Amino acid sequence: MNNSWIGNYSYFRSRISPTKEAIYDYENKISYTYGDLENRANLLANYLVEVLEIDKGDRIAFCTRNCIELFDAYYATAKIGAILVTYNQLLSENELINMINNETPSVLFYEGNIEEKIIRIREKTNISKFIELDGNNNGRCEYKYKDIMNYKNSDYRECKDLDLEDIHMIIHTGGTTGIPKGAKISHRSLLYNSLSAAMTFNLSQFDSSYIMTPMFHTAAWSVLTLPILHMGGRIIISKKNEPKLTLKIINNERPTVLLGVSTLFGMMIKEKEFDSTDYSSLRWILSAAAPTPISTMEKFWEKGVKFALAYGMTEAGPCNCTTQADCISLDDIKKKHTAVGKPMYFTQVKVVDDIGNEVERGQCGELIWSGPGIYSGYWNNEKESNKTLKDGWVYTGDIGRKDEDGYYYIVGRKKNMFISGGENIYPPEIESEIQKHPLVDEVCVIGFPDEKWGEVGKAIVAVKSNEDLDEEEVIFFLKNNMSSIKIPKYYHFVDNIPKNSAGKIQRGVLQQLYGMS
Length: 517
Description:
The chain has 517 residues and is α/β, with parallel strands linked by helices. The chain contains 17 helices and 26 strands. It folds into 2 domains: 9-335, 3-Layer(aba) Sandwich (Rossmann fold); 418-514, GMP Synthetase, Chain A, domain 3, CATH 3.30.300.
């Protein structure tokens, strides 16, 4: 069978609607048609192969905010069978170095605003080729992206020996240790997630969306962006992700559907422009990644917006579960406002007990997912892959239940973690860093409610005998080794930390004592 159709996503769409606007760069006021996307993809694909000598299966890494070059890379890597890896530029140097050395990309594209960080990373990795995206490197980088877009060869390119199980992307997710793991996302997974979203959300060429989440996360790609582009709709991008800007884009660009996280929506309703914004173009808004307070939801409901919740996991989709807002009334959304909805097209779900048996409807258990949209394991991490992926089912670690109407609810997390601003935060990683301070005897980090971020870290610290330590000193100690979102916001100093008879810290006791606002 000729598999050259796999990876030809920009070509097929451009063949249908070459002059239709596909992406609008709001900051730079530049529109890109579907014909432009195909041309740019061919330029980058040919440059990668002919100049940078990239082969099928090689990793191509990006460390940048949302930008048109990421779309070039998505389509170009599909054309040559390479793997696109996306990194969060806000991670610490050590975190990025560890991830890069594990995934060994051949090329790293980066944004000029992090050039100093990249220079230091370069010294501790084996990447041979660095490409600066926006031309601000003052000659310190051999390759410049503008040269790629002026490359001599824009001929059509395809990869004839691709398989649906070949990996197209590596997208990072958290682990029980907090060390980001690279989830292997196949062409099969990306295509079926797009189909699932298009069918579940009734997407068409008339839909448009603003990407509110960073594109180093799976949700930014698979829930709305790629499905809308497959259908021939319009995507709006911006490097900045600010509540005022989002409201301005809603008002001026008239998106039809939106996906975001609770933190950003909570910030939007506090802006003075919130009340004057015209929301009439929106069919619905979905909030995912963390619980959204009803006080936030009510503000959108008052504007007549169908604001509801959804649920997804990188390894399981992320097109897993959603409130199907097109199919129900705003009153029904209000009645089920704590639900994350019903399973999306193609997905299979079970709620199971600790030995893998399905529980009765209404009972709580671990959510597990299967179907053609799931991931293919973690890059270079068989041990963690085997823990999460068992017999074709992804074990989420999330505790949920199903009601009599088929709606699902998330009631807790089996894993030791909390969610801050849509990001998974894992206490063991933070604890190990705090523990390095010479005055710290023991520490336990728990999630603490926060109006802006949903949850933030609270460190319960036992200081060594006859020593003095305050939170400012701990924060200063952590700043050079951890990204700011992981540094606890609150601190409580105690004489000792309670443990059980086996000598393990009693996290439940500490959560009960110190985890409530």
